[in-house]
Each structure stands twice: as structure tokens, then as C-alpha cells.
Amino acid sequence: MDSFAAGHRRIAVLLPCYNEAPSIAAVVRGFRSALPEARIYVYDNNSTDGTALLAMLAGAEVLRERRQGKGHVVRRMFADIDADIYLMADGDGTYGPDDAEDLIRTLITERADMVVGTRRDLSDTAGRHGHALGNRLFNHLYRRLFADGFTDIFSGYRAFSRRFVKSFPAVSDGFEVETEMSVHAFRLKMPVCELPLDYGRRLEGSASKLSTLGDGARILLMFAMLLKETRPFALFGGLALLLMLAGLALAVPVLADYLQTGLVPRLPTWVLSLAFAGVSAMSLTAGVVLDSVARGRNELLRLHYLSAPHLTFDMNPPAAADLPPAIALKRKRRA
């Protein structure tokens, strides 16, 4: 990097990969050129096309994660690698290594814990209209259920601080891990930023591993699980309201008959309406109790997050003489 954005901090570039042989060598070389002082780690997730060898020959440090799924890979990467700044991208060549400097600079200057590289013109470059439509729908759902802080929760191009990485539990198994990252930042009220970036098409011979229906269903389940964990009162309170409305809809005609005739001709309907009311009260009670539990867990998570060392912010750019030669040369060219 050419300015104060990285300084002498340790930067780790993390590339989870599964069968990315057509692109991985170019991606590794691109990040080596863009971030000459960074260490580049490729985590191979049971590739069968020589991805690991090509990444190693291109200069990356290659490690393996045997459990299949991006969530497993991210959990392993975050546990294994020790750095000050983490940059995560995909190995398919759709994210430009030249944008890495801007992501890291934004992380430093904005004093953020996560910077998300949002994808411009995703509908034109995604390659599959189902993916682009699903991306818009899930982003809208995220903003309705959680917060307005993100416009592209599925972007795989992100920069993280150390305290984000070391406080992130990563319980998901697959592509829903990006959703979990966004909710984790929302849950702990972390400072986050978005940076619009260009998004390219995959190289010829490289195929997307994302299943529109299968992964979409898993993401929906992840939304439900995260809503239960982070906003239980909203979930169980909403369920209680629906049950109460259903109970009232059943009870009103029975009550009307009773007021007119003094009889209850539809006793099963009346009993069912009372059952709905009872379950509604139980759901509301569960929401209140679990909301208190969630608040306590959030406090513990935030204390753990704050205990991790964070970046120091030296806002004065280092002199050219103090920079590593590769960075000094790049700064001179840009000037």
C-alpha cells in the first residue's frame, strides 16, 4: 500500500477456494502486486482441479479445510491466522485486487471494524438473474428484520479489524456466513462502512458454487435463527400477535351467537380460540424472557469484543524513506 493506511501493520489476505483453478493463480498474483507486504493465504476446501498447487506456485500459503462449506472455511481462517488487518476475497477473480488498498484505507481512516465492498451493477455481472433477484430480496429482508446498515450483505470482499475477527463466532456452514457477519456487526453495534466497487464476471471454465434454491433456503433458515438469537421479542411477539388475531377471528362469531341466543353452538371452535389465546400468551412470555437473555449475551459478547486489541490510528503518513521499497515505488508512481 502506498499511504498511511497500512503502515507497518500485519495484513493477511484470506482466499477461501473450491475448484478455482482457472482463476486462482491470477488472483494470488494480483494481491501480491496490490499488497506487497501482505501474507496471502489460500484455504482449499477439497478442490479436485489442482487449485491448491496453482495457488502455491503463484506464491500463496496454502492450507486445507476438510469440512465442506464456506462457513467452515471462514471459521478455520479466522481461528488460524493472526494479523492486525484481514482482507477476505473470493478466488474466482470477480473481485479486483487493486481495490484492496481502498478497502484497507477506509478501514483505517473510518476507524471501522468491517468494510464491505458492495458490488456495482450486480444484475448485469452476476451471470444468473436468479442470483441477482435473490440478492435484492434478501438485502431488503435484512433491512426490515435487522438494520439499514448494509446494502449488499452477500459480498465476499471485506476488510476486518482484528477484534472483529477474534470476536466472530461463525456458526454457519455455507454461504450464509456473510449474512452472519452482517448480523454480528449489527448485534454489537460495531462501526462499519460500505465501499462501492466494480464486480466482474467469472473467467471461462469457472462455475458458481451457489445454488439458487438450496442456498436460498439455508439463508432463510439463518435469518430465522439469527432473529431468534438477536431479537427474540420481535420474533415471539410477532408470533403471539398472529396467534391472538387468529383466536379472535374464531371467537368473535361464537360470542355473537352467545349474545343473541345464550348458547354456544360451536363449542370446538370456542375451545380452539381459547387454545390460540393461551399459546399466544406463552409466546409473548417466551419473547420477554429470551429478550432479557439475549441482552445479557450481547453484553458479554461486546465485552469480549472490546477486550481484543484494536488498530492504533496514526494519521500522519510515513515518510518515503521509512516505507518498504515496493510501497515507496508505488507511491512515487501514483504521485
Can you walk me through this structure?
It is a single chain. The chain has 335 residues and is an alpha/beta fold. 52% of the residues lie in helices and 11% in strands. The protein contains twelve helices and seven strands. The chain has helices at 24-34, 51-57, 70-80, 100-109, 122-125, 129-145, 162-165, 177-187, 212-230, 232-261, 267-307, 325-334; strands at 11-17, 39-44, 61-64, 85-88, 114-119, 158-161, 192-197. It has a seven-stranded mixed beta sheet with strand order 3-2-1-4-6-5-7, with helices on both faces. The radius of gyration is 25 Å and the shape is elongated. The two termini are 13 Å apart.
Write the layout of secondary structure elements.
Layout: E1 11-17, H1 24-34, E2 39-44, H2 51-57, E3 61-64, H3 70-80, E4 85-88, H4 100-109, E5 114-119, H5 122-125, H6 129-145, E6 158-161, H7 162-165, H8 177-187, E7 192-197, H9 212-230, H10 232-261, H11 267-307, H12 325-334
Parallel strand pairs: 1-2, 1-4, 2-3, 5-7
Antiparallel strand pairs: 4-6, 5-6
Given as residue ranges, the uncertain stretches (5+ residues, pLDDT < 50) are 1-6, 313-324
Q: Span from first to last CA?
A: 13 Å
Write down the secondary-structure element order. EHEHEHEHEHHEHHEHHHH
Major β-sheet, in short? 7 strands, mixed
The number of helical segments is 12
Question: Strand arrangement, largest sheet?
Answer: 3-2-1-4-6-5-7
> How many beta-strand runs?
7
Q: In percent, how much strand structure appears in the residues?
A: 5-15%
> How would you state the average pLDDT, rounded?
86
Basic shape: elongated
Q: Structural class, from secondary structure content?
A: alpha/beta
Computed CA radius of gyration, to the nearest angstrom:
25 Å
Helical coverage, percent range: 40-55%
